[in-house]
Design a protein that fits this description.
The chain is an alpha+beta fold and 464 residues long. It has a single domain, classed as Cytochrome p450. The chain has a 5-stranded mixed sheet, with helices on one face. Strand 1 and strand 2 form a beta hairpin. The longest helix is centred in the middle third of the chain and has 32 residues.
Length: 464
Amino acid sequence: MQLPNLLKTHPFLQKLQWVTDPVGYMEKAAQQYPDIFTAKIIGFGDTVIFVNHPQAIQEILTNDRKKFIAVGDANRIVEALIGERSLFLMEGIPHKQKRQLVMPAFHGDRMRAYGQQICSLCTKVFSQLPLDQPFLARNLTQEITLQVILQVVLGLNEEEKLQQLKYLLPQMLDLFRSPMTSSLFFFSFLQKDLGAWSPWGKFLRDRQQIDKLIYAEIAERRQQLDPERIDILSMLISAQDDIGQSMTDQELRDQLMTLMLAGYETTATALAWGLYWIHQKPLVREKLLQELDTLGDSPDPMSIYRLPYLTAVCNESLRIHPVLMFSFARVVQEPVELLGYPLEPGTVMLPNIYLTHQREDLYPQPKEFQPERFVERQFSPYEFLPFGGGVRRCIGEALALFQMKLVLATVLSRYHLALVDRRPEQPQRRGFTLAPSSGVKMVITGRRRARQESLVNMTTTLVS
């Protein structure tokens, strides 16, 4: 079989660049082959085909489970973090059944109930910051999203357990905060437990401590079922499938780890990028503040969620710097043709989110932050896909967007912030994600009074 647009670089050099500089690797390849190319990178078997064309991505995602499936060694790379019973690693009927059990937690009345909690947690974290003292936005947004995950997802109110997990989860994930340490996932020979001081050994011990706390919480919650609780763990414990079966302890643990790790790390990074771009572009900030001020001093969370320009700003942040570089890898199940190229069963396909979002034919001047793109045009789910697509579309998308909008609105409405360093922030590998390399250093320069600023803006507009 002739693979489409096979990159000529030596496989070892490809693997090295993929781990250390994934953005540079992808952009260089896309300059030659903007629609589809074949790479040899670690973590997905010997060979993987990057797909960057919306039509081809649609073909892959809408034929999921027929011509393509999202299981196999290609996606096992995340198993060490989330567990073998995670929704991420299921396929077919089991995947569909478990997804139906989890979905209700992210829609309707439950989302409304989470809204005020998210705003309060954000306010609490920011209120502890002194004026004129630099801080890293990525660290602060991680603190907010971690608290949201622990209280909204796990429903933890007991201070001791809350503090233990607040310490252990970041400690475990910070091990993979750089491209160098992220290589532990991509090179299996580095995954050796050489004791507590070895990187992989430390990861395993941190994970063991987290598991102990989660299983203890599951056992306690099963003994004290409370129908009034609205957290996601309580809902999952009570949920039953079509034949009346509930999730096992391991299934609960793996779903919780999936929701916690995917929900808190990715949302924290998306928020940091959002704060960066809003304060990098003063006109965007001013337009956003004018929209927020129309809601008054105590806006309803659902009113914030529906704001059109805020939505456009969040979408553009997720477009220009998608946290995830690609959707779940798919494996060809039967001979197919894609963009004119014949593909054999067993071929691994990678729908590429980052490169699709950088296409000049979809997004003119793709390196420019322009929220108006999402005001003037509606993009298809195969042109704009920060949360993946098909039956593997991120199940926590609604909560992530809800949280992103509420946190940005709360911070902008209450504080004047400024970037400490005006140099462009660059994306860098952080585990499986792309995060701002410098963490977005910012400072609070003052507290804001929405109504007064709104009057000043109106006066300025009238005078001009």
